[in-house]
Write a structure and sequence with these properties.
The protein is of the alpha/beta class and 276 residues long. It contains ten helices and nine strands. The strands form two sheets. The protein has a six-stranded parallel sheet. Strands 7-8-9 form a three-stranded mixed sheet, with helices on one face.
């Protein structure tokens, strides 16, 4: 297939490199900054430096862009996308953009299938991309009423690239679960390092500090957009977290060792039951 990847950041760059490593598909890179495309071409991550005209020959288009930017790109260049091509995104929210991209797919004649690769790093940009990023990772597919053949095409491609699990879900379930598994930990990490103690942590910290603070090295522009576009599920998870924190705060304040132990043991059993 001819696969166009739009956006040469860590996600898009890793898609390009993974496709070239694991398959014989032809990769077209499209990016706002030409120097990044030139670097990707010299690396062998893409076969062609593309533009809007290149969309006419792409069988699959991967939008590795911020959610709003993905919609804007299709609004602007949708007429160039080949009729019947499969277009997918990589955004961390779905309820906000799936209806918009599905509507655009009907307007321009392509097939939209939402998706979300569950992989990343604390660093961003093409330089952080690599051909192993997706190996063993989960790949979430949100069909958005697309036909089964298009969903299978995308699923098969993901397995070719080394993804370890394909999860099919709805926009609503996706956003609810991502609020818990991804967005909440980022907020927790940011709140944690805002403590005045953080600046003096060296010499006092080990694995626990690193585990909790790791994702506080955050892309503020991207994540603030994701938070706002998924605010209702996220608020629900924040309220649950706040209730649990308050229960522990009250127990510590009251000097209630038994209650503290009960809360900690409840958490321990939850992890134990999950086999983690």
């Amino acid at each position: 297939m001819n696969i166009a990847v739009v956006g040469m950041g860590i996600i898009g760059g890793s898609f390009c490199k993974s496709i070239k490593k694991h398959t014989d598909h032809y990769v077209i890179g499209i990016n706002r900054t030409k120097s990044t495309l030139e670097k990707a071409f010299s690396d062998g991550a893409i076969d062609e430096i593309g533009d809007k005209e290149s969309l006419k020959k792409a069988d699959v288009v991967i939008l590795a862009l911020y959610p709003s930017a993905a919609v804007e790109f299709v609004e602007k260049y949708g007429a160039y996308i080949k009729k019947g091509a499969v277009v997918t995104d990589s955004a961390g929210i779905k309820s906000e953009i799936c209806p918009k991209l599905s509507e655009l797919s009907r307007k321009f004649g392509f097939v939209f299938v939402g998706s979300h690769p569950m992989a990343g790093k604390e660093t961003n940009g093409y330089e952080s991309s690599d051909d192993t990023l997706y190996e063993g990772a989960s790949y979430i597919i949100v069909p958005c009423k697309a036909d089964s053949d298009s969903v299978k095409l995308l699923s098969d491609l993901a397995l070719e690239l080394g993804f370890g699990m394909i999860k099919i879900t709805t926009p609503e379930e996706h956003d609810r679960m991502i609020a818990y598994t991804s967005q909440l930990p980022h907020i927790l990490a940011c709140a944690y390092v805002l403590s005045p103690c953080c600046k003096n942590h060296k010499g006092f910290s080990a694995g626990s500090y690193k585990d909790v603070s790791r994702v506080a090295n955050i892309n503020a522009k991207l994540w603030s957009e994701l938070f706002m576009e998924n605010r209702e599920p996220l608020i629900g998870e924040l309220e649950t977290l706040n209730e649990n924190l308050l229960a522990i705060i009250d127990a510590v304040r009251d000097g209630d060792k038994n209650r503290i132990e009960e809360l900690l043991e409840k958490a321990h059993k939850t992890k134990e039951e999950l086999g983690e």
